[in-house]
Structure formats: C-alpha cells, structure tokens
Amino acid sequence: MTAGETAAALRVEGLTYAYPDGSVALRGVDLTVGEGERVALLGPNGAGKTTLVLHLNGVLHGGAGTVEVGGLRVEARDRARLSEIRRRVGIVFQDPDDQLFMPTVAEDVAFGPANLGLRGAELSERVDEALEAVGMAEHRDQVPHHLSFGQRRRVAVATVLAMRPQLLVLDEPSSNLDPASRRELAEILQRLPVTVLMVTHDLPYAMQLCPRSVILDGGRIAADGATAGLLADDDLLRAHRLELPYGFHPVRP
Amino acid sequence: MGAGHAHPLHLDRPSPVHRLAPEVKILATLLFTIVVVLTPREEFSAFGGYALLLAAVAVLARVPVGWLAKRAMIELPFVVLAVALPFAGQGERVEWLGLSLSVDGLYGAWNIFAKGTLGVVASLLLAASTTMRDLILGLDRLRCPSVFTQIATFMLRYLDILADDARRMRIARLSRGYDPRFLWQVKAFAVSVGALFLRAYERGERVYLAMVSRGYDGRLPRPEAGSATAAQWAQSAALPVAAAGIALAAVLG
C-alpha cells in the first residue's frame, strides 16, 4: 500500500488455498472493498465463497496471498492481532442455529463482546444496542429455539453487530426466509452504517442491497462491477451457473 | 434470568421458593438428601418429620400434591424391587395375612421406599422451582467444573434441535411407507440414528467455527447477574438444618 492510499475496509491480494485433501478452493483471489461499500459476492455452489469468507477472519489460512482488514493484515500466528481482526470482521453464518448456541438471546448476543473483554453495564449496553438495531429488543430473554426462523436470523445478525464490526459478512442472508422476513431483514441491513460483504445466490436480493457485485467461480474473481450491469449480462450469468428468477429483469428504476 | 428454558418438570409459579437463587436451592436439596440417607432406617418418626418438612416446602413453592405424586412415579421400578425384599430376605420371619415375611427384608423395603421417595420428592421440588438454565447457573456458581456446565449448556440448547431433526427424519421415513413391524425391519431406523449422529457432529463443527469467529478462546464468559445473598442462604438453610435437627433428636432421643 502506498502512503497516499486510504486503508480499504478489505483488501485481498493473490489469495490461494487448498484443503488438506488436496482440492483447490481458491486460485488467486484479488478483491478490494472500500469503506462503507456494499458488495455482493455471487457464485455457484462450490465456487469457494465460504472458503474465502473464512479467510477474512483468519479461521482458514496457510495458502499464498494476503488479507488486510482496515489496513491490518490477517496473521494467523499472532493471537492478539487475530482477536482484533475478529472484532473488525463480523460473520453471520447461514444457519442461525449454528450461531445461536447460548440458552437465551441476550446471553448469545453478549458472547462476542464478552470475549472482547467487556463486562457489566457496558456489556448490557452493547446487547441492547445490537438487539435494538435488528428490532429484537423485546425478545432478549427468550430461548432461541422458540423464535421463528426469521427472528433467529435477525438475532444472529445482532450477535455480530454487538461486536461493532467494521466489515459485516453475511453468508446467504436470505436463505429459507419467507418473503416478509426477507424484506424485514433487507430493511435492517439497509439501515446499518457498516461495510457489507454479502454472499448469496439470491440475485434480486443482491440487486436490492448491493450496488456492486463480484462473481467468484473456480476459485477466482470472474467479474466485478455494478450489480445491475452484471445481472443484465445473460452470457456472463450463464457461464457461471447463476440464474435470475423467472420473469425478473434487472432494470434500474 | 427471566423466561428460562421450559422443561416438563418445571412449574412456573410466583413463590418465595422460586425466587431463591439456584445455588442455595441445589445445596439445600443435596444436604437434605444426605441427612435423609444417613438416618437409621428404624427411626420412623424422623422420616415422618422429613415428609412434613417437604410438605411445608411444597406449600411454600405452591406445587400441587397431585403434580408431585404423578412425577414421583419415576420411583416405581425401585419400589417394585423393594416389594420383593420381604419375600426374598433372610433371617427372622413374621406371619402376616398368611404370608411369611422376612423382618430384615421388611426393614430393607421400608428403607428403600422411604429414602427413595423423600429424595425424589426433594429433587422434584428443586426442579419445579428452578429452570434448567438456572440449575446450570447454580452448579456453575457452586464451582462445578466448567466442562460439565458447558456440556450441559450446549445440551440444553441443542437437544430440542436434535429432537426436531429426528422427528423430521421419522416423518420423512413414514411418508415413504416405512412401517417397521419386525425386528429385521429396523435397519432404516438404525441408519437414521447414524445419520443423526453425523448431523450432530457436523453441526458441532459449524457451531465451533461460528464461536471462533466471535473471538471464542476456550472459555465461556461467566454470567454475572446477582448471585445469592446471605439472607437467601439463611432461608434455604432452614430445610437441611431442620432435617438434621430431626435426625439428631430421633437418634439421641
């Protein structure tokens, strides 16, 4: 990085990764996401999307290339730095039941900030703030199992927001949601003042929430541009096993 | 803790016993049970005294007798064993309604029945007045090794999800005409159990990944909210102290 450049929210350069069984998942990924940008990461199943996501906070590492979050390089061996990276990068996983493991909603939202060393009043303030942001404040003492799927997904977003991340990564945020929950989540995400990287197959959702999209296929970035432009390119979509829902035309209003 | 986890043994009532901190109730139940078990089996009046103590607690906790009696049925298999003792016992025998019964066996049966019932009822009262979540919290505050309380916490959260998985798999089997009537038809069931185990195992991995992404470093944050006050310790001590008094009076008197 040269001195004049401002630190991007996320900068991935030449990232490669092969799983221990030898299958190559990433073959040199370059991706830069600016501060406050909302980017959709599109790609067919098995394109390496989840593998890339797990590199952003250092859960997976060991290949060539670098990942920088807000100018800080992900260094798997440096534990203090790793915990700072994990504060900056909030990942919301696809299945909220994987994310919500504590007996009550509030305890689960408190898990992240408590790992950052917060205690007492400051901790409960974070919990309230995060639950407020996703409209789940009145459910704070409920058991996750008793919430609807859409509500659990929102709480899962809150568990990450409570850590005040700079980069919010969402893995298939609209999967398994009914249309109303899908819209409610979109409204919540639109209000959040953070940089967003959204992994999805739901192309209209990408169009609604992210001005910019990148297509990951075969472990490489295959396309990068304005979402509306990418979705209008039929040949490009077909080449990467992406399809718009029947009757949907990506024309900007 | 507000709304805790609903379990079939819990009875949500506003009562002074429900309001006690879980750790004092656990300790009181444990000490009471120890006193009961240590009481010599010939001290019939002492056991009557213990029963009165439990009745007082049940009234305080507003737990109906019928509710207790129904759930105390769990004791039945042990009582059935106890019934056999007077017939099978050795030594001096008495005649009763034309039956020859062993005196030692009669005492043995009484011993199992009285101590078992008192122990079961005491545990039921604890369970009725304390949520699962609070029980785990109480054990944690009593310095129970955190490995056990963490395992219990996870079980509490994921048992329902696992049961749901199992139910869905069963419905899917039934929907395809599976109706096992004979032992050699259970293969599909056995295979499902294996599949369920794999699902649980994979979920464990995903939950761990999600936890690591939120800065988990091997320790769950300890819930802080109010532990027991001195007054609560004193109130709950009433039960074991009274029981010990009865035991001493019976043995010495």
* Most extensive interface between two protein chains, with residue counts: A-B, 36 and 32 residues
Overall pLDDT score of chain A: 90
Span between termini of chain B = 45 Å
Number of helices of chain B: 10
CATH topology name of the domain at 10-95 and 165-239 in chain A? Rossmann fold
Which shape of chain B, going by the Cα principal axes?
A: flat
Name given to the CATH homologous superfamily of the domain at 10-95 and 165-239 in chain A: P-loop containing nucleotide triphosphate hydrolases
Give the count of helical stretches of chain A.
Answer: 10
How many strands, what sense, and barrel or not for the largest sheet of chain A?
6 strands, mixed
Oligomer: heterodimer
Order of helices and strands of chain A: EEEHEEHEHHHHEHEHEEHH
Q: Give the strand tally of chain B.
A: 2
Order of helices and strands of chain B: HHHHHEEHHHHH
Q: What's the structural domain tally of chain B?
A: 2
Largest sheet of chain B: 2 strands, antiparallel
The neighbouring-strand order within the major sheet of chain A is 6-7-8-3-9-10
Number of strands of chain A: 10
The chain-level structural class of chain A is alpha/beta
Intertermini distance of chain A: 38 Å
Structural class of chain B: mainly alpha
Care to describe what's here?
Chain A has a domain at 10-95 and 165-239: P-loop containing nucleotide triphosphate hydrolases (Rossmann fold). In chain A, 36% of the residues lie in helices and 23% in strands. Chain A has helices spanning 49-56, 79-88, 96-99, 105-115, 120-133, 149-161, 179-191, 203-209, 227-232, 234-239; strands at 10-18, 24-33, 38-42, 66-69, 72-73, 89-92, 167-171, 195-200, 212-217, 220-226. In chain A, a hairpin with a 5-residue loop joins β1 (10-18) and β2. With 253 residues, chain B is mainly alpha-helical. Chain B folds into 2 domains: 16-139 and 227-252, no CATH class; 145-213, no CATH class. Helix content of chain B is 70%, strand content 3%. In chain B, β1 and β2 (99-102) form a beta hairpin. The longest helix of chain B has 30 residues, at 146-175. Chain B starts with 15 loop residues before the first helix and ends with a helix. At the A-B interface, α2, β6, α3 and α4 of A face α7, α8 and α9 of B.
